[in-house]
Design brief:
Elements lengths: L3 E5 L5 H15 L10 E2 L6 H5 L2 H7 L16 H6 L2 H13 L3 E5 L5 H13 L3 E6 L3 H14 L16 H21 L6 E4 H5 L4 H14 L12 H11 L6 H5 L5 H12 L5
Parallel strand pairs: 1-3, 1-4, 2-3, 4-5
Helix pairs in contact: 1-11, 7-8, 10-11
Length: 275
């Protein structure tokens, strides 16, 4: 079995891709002893309260919380970040031990730790999907909105007039540019499947997107057959990646008071509009 690693940053459509891959692996290897189809962001600062519960914590982490307390008080990645790499490696190892693959957000660990994790994945023959987003302006603006409202599971509805921090947006864009350049260099000589948010969600026709998902699954060793209209990848792609409701840019930005200033800044400095 070729387990998978989705290596990406936030606001790249990674959750949808993760759902498709995890479900595909569960379908193919349903007779195996994996506890989870996939491990979603094991180094997330609030991984326990957002994604999992006691069963996950016991399997993945060595430090056990007081389960009678509020889950938000459980010790989680805040402790992991402060530990040495050996502890983080155990979390990484356990994540793969009990599931078919991992989605990892590179911002959850330092660069040197991410590089070590990538090297481990390569040594073990994991199938690496390197997911990025070409439109850095929209990606980082989405990050800014989610950060402002502290809502990451979906893009928040902006119901009241708000002024967003332009300096913070500039910082996020410059950081993403620097980090993407760094990881492009790390992955230059590594066997991986490179794909972008735009290829998965924006630029291609429906059948082309389905074929792209099929290519990713084939890369992972899961052969896809498209002759049946109820075929797994087609149906899963439609349910997770096409029917997924997204707020239109115009509707999202209506209550951002300084939206024109932000847009002009982005066009002047990065030759991209947020619309």
């Amino acid at each position: 079995m070729n387990k998978f690693l989705i290596f990406t940053d936030n606001r790249t459509g990674s959750s949808s891709l993760f759902k498709v891959l995890s479900a595909a692996y569960c379908r193919k290897y349903k007779s195996s002893n994996a506890v989870f189809c996939g491990t979603n962001e094991p180094f997330h600062p609030k991984v326990i309260e957002h994604f999992y519960g006691k069963e996950y914590f016991d399997l993945i982490f060595e430090t056990k919380p007081n389960y009678s307390a509020d889950p938000k008080t459980w010790k989680n990645r805040g402790e992991i970040i402060l530990n040495d790499f050996d502890y983080k490696k155990k979390v990484f190892d356990n994540s793969f031990k009990h599931s078919y693959g991992v989605k990892h957000i590179w911002g959850h660990l330092k660069k040197e730790d991410n590089t070590k994790i990538i090297n481990i994945a390569v040594e073990r023959g994991y199938k690496i999907i390197y997911l990025t987003r070409e439109n850095l302006v929209k990606k980082c603006f989405s990050h800014l909105v989610c950060e402002h409202f502290n809502e990451w599971q979906k893009t928040p509805k902006i119901k009241e007039p708000v002024v967003l921090d332009l300096d913070r947006l500039k910082f996020l864009i410059e950081r993403y540019l620097e980090e993407k350049k760094y990881y492009n260099s790390v992955f230059k000589e590594i066997d991986k499947f490179s794909v972008t948010y735009e290829e998965l969600f924006v630029d291609k026709l429906y059948w082309q997107k389905c074929n792209l998902i099929g290519e990713i699954l084939n890369f992972c060793g899961i052969n896809c057959h498209w002759s049946d209209s109820d075929s797994f990848p087609d149906r899963m792609f439609n349910e997770v990646m096409i029917k997924k409701k997204k707020y239109s840019s115009k509707k999202l930005y209506d209550n951002v008071i300084n939206i024109q200033e932000i847009d002009e800044f982005c066009k002047s400095n990065y030759n991209r509009s947020i619309f």
